[in-house]
């Protein structure tokens, strides 16, 4: 039995293996428990293993590569068309193996343990930021029910709610003020936690020479630079800058047929957090271009006059993604046009 291609349907406790020889004949179908998976895979001759991108995929990638195998990670939406008949673990594993052998299949870039650590920092911080935004919205809504309104800014919320608690608004009952004080304390605690994550991301940024080079691009700061390294590493999985920009979802969504080409808004594929950071950075570049007189600012102003602010912001983000790819591939410094 020679297994050349092995599809593994990952799970928490029970894993399904589907192996085929070079001719495509099924030679292995087995269910394996978690504590036996690495032993079973290590016993096989070196082969190409395919797994779906999911929680734990990068951990298993490192384990299987340590056992001498080549590992390919496939996005779930690319596996789904190859599932035959009913959905179950056996059919899923077979579909993963089938997708692996497609000549034009696109694979998910692998991640080292360091990249996953940086990504965990960003995910932890974003979760706290989302929680803080929800908490502020909740407090604003509760106060609006009592006739007190203020702007949506989190900075304004800290100031206004703090003043209400210090001065004591007569229209607020004692019970409501006590409840509001608890929510306000939770807001301050979230601020403190987010600040800790910001400091840790800054430490990662200062320790990484590549991040510091990327941060010289207008619209790219420490958070964007570290997020890029966490998501794509050195960019070796991408063929060119446009490929990277498309992976980030910064290209138009297409629905064309025959001679009729139809383009819509951006596809929003890939890493949403990274795309959001690039868009926010591009928005700042567009906003400040009116006060600058360089080649990039002139290009931005001309584009904005012709296509509007929203498309200009996406164009700047797309361009920054391509510049990032070139710098990662060539190891060069950022050069102002």
UniProtKB/TrEMBL annotation:
GO terms for molecular function: DNA binding; transposase activity. It holds the Pfam family DEDD_Tnp_IS110. One of its GO terms (biological process) is DNA transposition. Residues 6-143 form the Transposase IS110-like N-terminal domain. Residues 211-291 form the Transposase IS116/IS110/IS902 C-terminal domain. PANTHER family: PUTATIVE TRANSPOSASE FOR IS117-RELATED, TRANSPOSASE FOR INSERTION SEQUENCE ELEMENT IS1111A. This is IS110 family transposase. It comes from Novosphingobium aerophilum.
């Amino acid at each position: 039995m020679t297994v050349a291609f092995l599809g593994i349907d990952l799970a928490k406790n029970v894993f399904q293996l589907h192996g085929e020889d070079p001719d495509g004949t099924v030679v292995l179908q087995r269910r394996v428990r978690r504590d036996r998976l690495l032993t079973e895979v290590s016993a096989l001759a070196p082969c190409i293993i395919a797994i779906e991108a999911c929680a734990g995929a990068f951990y298993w990638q490192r384990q299987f590569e340590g056992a001498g195998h080549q590992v390919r990670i496939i996005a779930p939406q690319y596996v789904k068309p190859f599932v035959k008949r009913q959905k179950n673990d056996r059919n899923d594993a077979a579909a993963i193996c089938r997708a692996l052998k497609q000549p034009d299949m696109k694979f998910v870039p692998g991640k080292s343990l360091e990249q996953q650590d940086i990504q965990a920092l960003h995910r932890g911080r974003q979760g706290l930021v989302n929680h803080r935004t929800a908490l502020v919205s909740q407090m604003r809504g509760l106060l609006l029910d009592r006739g007190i309104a203020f702007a949506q800014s989190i900075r304004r919320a800290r100031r206004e709610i703090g003043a209400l608690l210090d001065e004591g608004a007569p229209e607020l009952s004692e019970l409501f003020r006590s409840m509001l004080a608890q929510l306000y304390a939770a807001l301050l605690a979230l601020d403190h936690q987010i600040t800790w994550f910001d400091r840790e991301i800054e430490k990662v940024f200062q320790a990484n020479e590549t991040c510091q080079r990327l941060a010289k691009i207008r619209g790219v700061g420490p958070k964007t630079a570290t997020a890029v390294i966490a998501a794509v590493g050195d960019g070796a999985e991408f063929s060119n800058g446009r490929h990277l920009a498309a992976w980030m979802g910064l290209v138009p969504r297409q629905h064309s047929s025959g001679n009729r080409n139809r383009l819509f808004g951006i596809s929003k594929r890939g890493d949403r957090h990274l795309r959001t950071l690039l868009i926010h950075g591009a928005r700042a570049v567009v906003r400040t271009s009116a006060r600058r007189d360089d080649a990039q600012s002139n290009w931005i102003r001309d584009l904005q006059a012709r296509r509007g602010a929203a498309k200009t912001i996406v164009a700047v983000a797309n361009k920054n993604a391509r510049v990032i790819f070139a710098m990662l591939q060539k190891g060069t410094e950022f050069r102002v046009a």
